Amino acid sequence: MECIGEQIGGFINMMQPEFFQEKHIYKVFELNRNVRLILENEFAQVWVQGEISNLRIPGSGHMYFSLKDENAQIKCVFFRGANAKLKFKLENGLSCILFGRIGVYERDGQYQLYVEKVELKGKGALQLAFEQLKNKLKKQGFFDLKRKRKIPFLPQRIGVVTSATGAAIRDILNVINRRYANVEVVVRSALVQGKSAAADIAQAIADLNEYKNLDVIIVGRGGGSIEDLWPFNEEPVAYAVYNSKIPVISAVGHEIDFTICDFTADLRAPTPSAAAELVVREKAQLVIKIDNLRQRLTETIFQKFKMAQMRFLRIKQSYALRKPYLIVEQYQQQMDNLEKSLKSNLCHLIKIKQEQFKNILKSDVFRRPKMIFTRNQEKIEKIEKSLSADFLHLLRIKQENFKIISSRLTALNPLSILARGYSITYSAEQKALKNIGEIKNGDILNTKLDKGVIYSTVIDLQF
């Protein structure tokens, strides 16, 4: 501070009358430059605490804002080369501690703080960056449940993105080999910690998407601090998971650790071992389940067969199959009765009409024909039409009944089944054969088809 005092004192001395007497006059830019050099020399490294306001970020990527407290404020500049290292996004109202140097913008003669580093007051920088990115991706639909895909029931090929030398890959492989050793595992080794880890993880997910026939991808690592797990909280990893064509399971850290990758993935597992257990079913349990299903299927088929067999026996023992000719005789008798009834009804109807005609002859028609004929001519025509219509209606009914009875007789005729592709085999004595025990090698048989007869000789019998 003594040096500052001396320089300020020297500056004040320059303002004394003696100074003007020497005609040593500064130009404006010279004065601003001298002030800048003095400030930069004395305030090359300062920490300043306050609240951000009037934040402005033009297309150049530089940040311009004010840092204020309840009594004063100072202009600040945060150049793009320095602010690119920020883990979070600056916002108005953010309380923080800035590190940098004091300088002067010579054109305007304005002194300001050139920021090199920002630390948050209170909430940690990483936690704030996590919440900011989480809110941003949530608004873009990255976490929507509708886009979450189901994990295959029993995947055949599993991709894993993790460190090839870490504990996570050993845990995953041990669980998979124990539960279902038939599964193929494709490991894409990636950095899981450090500045380059996020880009490597994102590229690894993209590489596995180009790999053929992968059913699911596990992305993860073992536990660690928030700094260790931070690559899984970065935007490139979130986009890689979101754009993956293959379902992704996130298994980062321990059960209490939550990352952006967890929220974006189709399924979150608390640990890498848990991810392996979720994606691979235990083979022994699957075998037991299959055996149970096989037993239930066998029992169901047996019950269906038993019911069908009982139904067949009932049909075989039915009256229609045991004595079909009796049914034919009954229908023939019924047809005779219908024919007799039809003739009787017709004769009776004719007699009635004849009597009606006779009565008409005895009526006044013939005594006074001219008068009566004209009056009753329409009645006669109506009677004729009615008689004709009734006769035709009754005839159609009888014809339909006759067709129905005829079709039933045809269906019940034992020989009609031959037209449907069946045949009847007779012995040499013309006895219909029912089982193989009624014949022997060398017997001559004849098989009746719908059209024609086949004669054959028995060569071999199979029981």
Describe this structure in words.
- This protein has 463 residues and is of the alpha/beta class.
- The chain folds into five domains: 2-122, Beta Barrel (OB fold (Dihydrolipoamide Acetyltransferase, E2P)); 133-145 and 155-281, Succinyl-CoA synthetase domains (Rossmann fold), CATH 3.40.50.261; 285-317; 321-412; 419-457, no CATH class.
- It has 16 helices and 13 strands.
- A five-stranded mixed β-barrel has the order 1-2-3-5-4. It has a five-stranded parallel sheet with strand order 7-6-8-9-10, sandwiched between helices. A three-stranded antiparallel sheet has the order 11-12-13, with no helix packed on it.
- β12 and β13 (453-457) form a beta hairpin.
- The longest helix has 44 residues, at 369-412.
- The N and C termini lie far apart (121 Å).
- The model is unreliable at 1-5 (pLDDT under 50).
Write the layout of secondary structure elements.
Blueprint (H helix, E strand, L loop, with lengths): L1 H13 L2 H5 L6 H15 L3 E11 L6 E6 L4 E6 L1 H4 L11 E11 L4 E11 L4 H15 L17 E6 L4 H13 L4 E6 L7 H14 L5 E6 L4 H4 L5 H9 L4 E5 L7 H5 L2 E2 L3 H8 L3 H34 L2 H4 L1 H39 L1 H4 L1 H44 L11 E3 L17 E5 L4 E5 L6
Parallel strand pairs: 3-5, 6-7, 6-8, 8-9, 9-10
Antiparallel strand pairs: 1-2, 1-4, 2-3, 4-5, 11-12, 12-13
Helix pairs in contact: 6-11, 7-9, 14-16
